[in-house]
UniProtKB/TrEMBL annotation:
Gene3D superfamilies: NAD(P)-binding Rossmann-like Domain (3.40.50.720). Pfam families: Epimerase (PF01370). SUPFAM superfamilies: NAD(P)-binding Rossmann-fold domains. Residues 10-231 form the NAD-dependent epimerase/dehydratase domain. PROSITE patterns: ADH_SHORT. Transmembrane segments: none annotated. PANTHER family: BIFUNCTIONAL POLYMYXIN RESISTANCE PROTEIN ARNA. This is Epimerase.
Length: 351
């Protein structure tokens, strides 16, 4: 197929939360984009589905992956099952096996560069800030599967595939539902918001837009086989973030801080009983300081974050307030879907 002299970027998971933002960013930069996803690219409030090519498929299907890679220059690999899905063995089939398929076939097709989007769930949290040299200590099956996927990427880099890894902090932005939809729902009802810890922990976030910029830079970089931490430069404590978004939303909600250790044990039990949407990643980290040193990405990629924690919370809340989350919950993406609150709904109703 003859193409104009414009690079073609394949965004796996292109109808998902981070993937759709990456696709939108690349399109706005004048690049050609192809989405690869099981879900429809017709995302409410965007024209991504009209502007980008689309190949429907699953990363576990090698034939579909190969079709998606036809004539592609750069790959942004975003497909992953996230903690909220509690996917069990599918974490390994999709997050690890799917990554193997995408990267091996990308190498065979001779792509110019790949960005593998990893997770902050792979690191040990004992010492802050977290650098790329911080020891790993993945949390839950999700974290373990993402670390294994990173090893797949590094294996292919050693074999000559031009691939880099970016590890984002918690991503918040427009079109983010998931666990944040629960927070915003409680705020809209002026319910008391229960949170682990005392709110004094520095808690870095990152915008999907800033990840998209980092992904493009990493894919096009002369460096290969590198890991880059990605996060906001302007961040505050968890307590300040929550107070800000509650005030921004003109909500009468208050925050009830609860001791982290007993609350974590209770949430772990509820998780085991399958009556809570929260996973280990949520109740084992939200009360702890967690922030990255992002200097390597700044120095080697020339990347600079634009957004602050306050910015991303405001955009996420505005999108929530302006959209019918339930009506868009067939997206196939856990981060773009309204989760079932289960036992938390009872707590919300009495708060």
């Amino acid at each position: 197929m003859e193409r104009a002299d414009v690079p073609l970027h394949l965004v796996t998971g292109g109808a998902g939360f981070v993937g759709s933002h990456t696709a939108e960013y690349l399109l706005d930069q004048g690049e050609d984009v192809r989405l690869f996803d099981r879900a429809s690219p017709d995302i409410p409030g965007t024209d991504i589905g009209e502007r980008a090519e689309y190949v429907r498929g699953d990363v576990r299907d090698k034939g579909a992956v190969r079709r998606a890679l036809d004539d592609v220059d750069y790959v942004h690999h975003n497909v992953a099952l996230v903690p909220l899905t509690k996917a069990g063995r599918e974490f390994w089939e999709v997050n690890v096996g799917g990554t193997e398929n995408v990267l091996r076939l990308a190498h065979e097709e001779g792509v110019e560069g790949v960005t593998h989007v990893s997770s902050s769930a792979v690191y040990d949290l004992s010492t802050m800030p977290v650098t790329e040299e911080t020891p790993v200590n993945p949390i839950g099956q999700y974290g373990m599967s993402k670390l294994a996927a990173d090893h797949v990427a590094l294996k292919h880099a050693a074999k000559g595939l031009p691939v880099n890894i970016i590890r984002p902090r918690t991503v918040v932005d427009e079109r983010r539902a998931g666990i944040y939809q629960i927070l915003f729902d409680w705020m809209d009802r002026d319910a008391r918001v229960y949170m682990l810890g005392d709110g004094s922990n520095l808690f870095q976030l990152v915008s999907a837009r800033d990840i998209a910029d980092a992904s493009k830079r990493a894919a096009e970089s002369e460096h290969t086989g590198e890991i880059y931490n990605i996060g906001n430069a302007d961040y505050t404590t968890l307590g300040e973030d929550l107070e800000h978004v509650i005030d921004y939303a003109d909500s009468e909600s208050t925050i009830q801080w609860i001791p982290a250790k007993p609350a974590s044990l209770l949430l772990q039990a509820l998780d085991a009983l399958k009556i809570s949407p929260l996973a280990a990643w949520h109740y084992k980290t939200v009360h702890r300081p967690y922030y990255f040193d992002i200097s390597k990405a700044q120095d080697e990629l020339g990347w600079e974050p634009v957004d602050s924690n306050f910015d991303v919370f405001e955009r996420a809340y505005d999108w929530y307030a302006q959209n019918d989350i339930e009506a868009t919950s067939d997206s196939g993406s856990a981060h773009r879907t309204a989760p079932k609150q289960q036992i938390l709904r009872l707590l919300r109703n009495v708060s």
